[in-house]
Design goal:
The complex is a heterodimer. By secondary structure, chain A is an all-beta fold. Chain A contains no helices and nine strands. By secondary structure, chain B is an all-beta fold. Classes of the chains: A mainly beta, B mainly beta.
Amino acid sequence: DAKTTQPPSMDCAEGRAANLPCNHSTISGNEYVYWYRQIHSQGPQYIIHGLKNNETNEMASLIITEDRKSSTLILPHATLRDTAVYYCIVRFASGTYKYIFGTGTRLKVLA
Amino acid sequence: NAGVTQTPKFRILKIGQSMTLQCAQDMNHNYMYWYRQDPGMGLKLIYYSVGAGITDKGEVPNGYNVSRSTTEDFPLRLELAAPSQTSVYFCASSYSGRGNYEQYFGPGTRLTVT
């Protein structure tokens, strides 16, 4: 089972880009990288996912290295509302679509 | 769409009591999940279901039971509550077809066992 490693916490100035790294060195070729965030004690919220190409949506960009052993979530213009715990997850390709959550990165956006 | 709903929002149980946490989704998702989250930790999968009548254990199933009689509902049963089951419980659902398997989470149930 592929596991992920993330820094426990990061700070980012409001309006600047927030770059959140994730290591997943044991990822398999058919496993996706997913990112979720959890604001306060709410249920986690989906942000973005990818397999091997870089991805962008209205919330964020996902950069996956060519060897797929690490990735970076980019919030291009962080706001105070982006303060949350961000989880990088590798989705099992076994067909059950289970997630294994780590402890995530606590991002604090500073005014 | 209401999405994923959970009841109750809060509950205090005495040791040895039992209760059922309710979860429902109106998105016609086949896959449903129960997680627990202890303070300062990530979510841990308790049980999941790939469709009505089919359930399977996750990482931390001991002390819990589930059933899935309909596509919409996925209740979690706690028998003989213990202080170690004090946690926030999240239910989630996801689509089972091709494409994005984003999980949609409910607002959670905060359970305290004393």
